[in-house]
């Protein structure tokens, strides 16, 4: 393979004739051949070292690895050691299930059960069907036994749970208010009329204005069967006279339309948020 003419010093001398040859491209072109040779030698040495080093390491340290392996696998046998004799383990006896004592035979009055069959008038029957009064007071069995009448079982019934969780009593027998009914109570004129009423009657307390209090007071009250408001309480307040003002306005409201459950009026507990805004 012929050497490239463009990389020869003759070509470089011609190109850089009359130019600065102390540094720059001329120096790089001049040292190019030597740099290529050094790089090839260094790459070959590194590649050869990567292949040769593991082989040399296996040869040098083969004896030590073999010693370590033999040392790990060495079994030490104990001689002359006598272990004490252990007592034989006896199996535990099988536990038998407890046998319940037989129930005592009571002499209870029993009436034989007779299956009713439909027959014509000419057929004669040999068994008489017991009366209903006998069946209601005696046990029913396969034979008729004369004895003591069985004790009548006592049936304890619990009152059903009502809608309001009050044990099944309705509004006529219990004063416990409902929380939710079929027809909820309503202010006369609807929600819009209620907001208008609150806007007219509600007065912002001076203490709340001075303190810059702004927020919502949540009030709960009971609307009775006649629509009258009672049992007014504050669930969430702001202080500075806002709670007292909310209670005053609620207690002064006219009667509402009462709530209805199953077609009758019932007391209902109602929750109403009242907004106090400085704006």
TrEMBL record:
Membrane topology note: Single-pass membrane protein
UniProt domain TonB C-terminal: residue ranges: 189-279
Keywords assigned by UniProt, alphabetized: Cell inner membrane, Cell membrane, Membrane, Protein transport, Transmembrane, Transmembrane helix, Transport
Keyword ATP-binding attributed: no
UniProt-listed PANTHER family: PROTEIN TONB (PTHR33446:SF2), PROTEIN TONB-RELATED (PTHR33446)
Protein name from the UniProt record: TonB family protein
Localization, UniProt: Cell inner membrane
Lineage: Bacteria, Pseudomonadati, Bacteroidota, Cytophagia, Cytophagales
Family: Belongs to the TonB family.
Highest taxon in the source lineage: Bacteria
Ranges annotated as spanning the membrane: 39-61
The species this protein was found in: Pontibacter rugosus
Principal subcellular localization: membrane
Pfam families from the UniProt entry: TonB_C (PF03544)
InterPro entries in the record: TonB (IPR003538), TonB-dependent_transducer (IPR051045), TonB/TolA_C (IPR006260), TonB_C (IPR037682)
Keyword Transmembrane helix attributed: yes
């Amino acid at each position: 393979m012929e050497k490239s003419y463009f990389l020869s010093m003759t070509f470089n001398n011609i190109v850089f004739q009359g130019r600065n040859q102390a540094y720059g491209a001329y120096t790089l072109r001049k040292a190019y051949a030597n740099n290529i040779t050094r790089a090839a030698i260094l790459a070959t040495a590194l590649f050869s070292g990567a292949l040769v080093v593991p082989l040399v390491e296996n040869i040098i340290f083969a004896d030590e690895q073999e010693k370590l392996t033999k040392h790990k696998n060495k079994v030490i046998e104990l001689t002359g050691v006598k272990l004490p004799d252990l007592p034989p383990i006896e199996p535990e006896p099988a536990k038998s299930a407890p046998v319940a004592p037989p129930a005592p035979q009571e002499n209870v009055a029993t009436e034989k059960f007779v299956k009713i069959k439909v027959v014509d008038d000419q057929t004669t029957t040999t068994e008489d069907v017991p009366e209903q009064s006998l069946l209601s007071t005696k046990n029913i069995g396969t034979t008729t036994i004369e004895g003591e009448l069985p004790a009548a079982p006592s049936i304890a019934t619990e009152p059903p749970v009502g809608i309001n969780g009050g044990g099944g009593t309705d509004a006529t027998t219990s004063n416990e208010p409902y929380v939710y009914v079929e027809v909820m109570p309503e202010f006369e004129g609807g929600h819009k009329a209620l907001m208008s009423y609150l806007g007219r009657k509600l007065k912002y307390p001076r203490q709340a204005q001075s303190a810059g209090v702004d927020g919502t007071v949540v009030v709960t009250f009971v609307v009775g069967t006649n629509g009258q408001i009672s049992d007014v309480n504050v669930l969430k307040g702001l202080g500075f006279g806002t709670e007292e003002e909310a209670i005053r306005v609620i207690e002064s409201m006219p009667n509402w339309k009462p709530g209805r459950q199953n077609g009758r009026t019932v007391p209902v507990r109602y929750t109403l948020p009242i907004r106090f805004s400085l704006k």
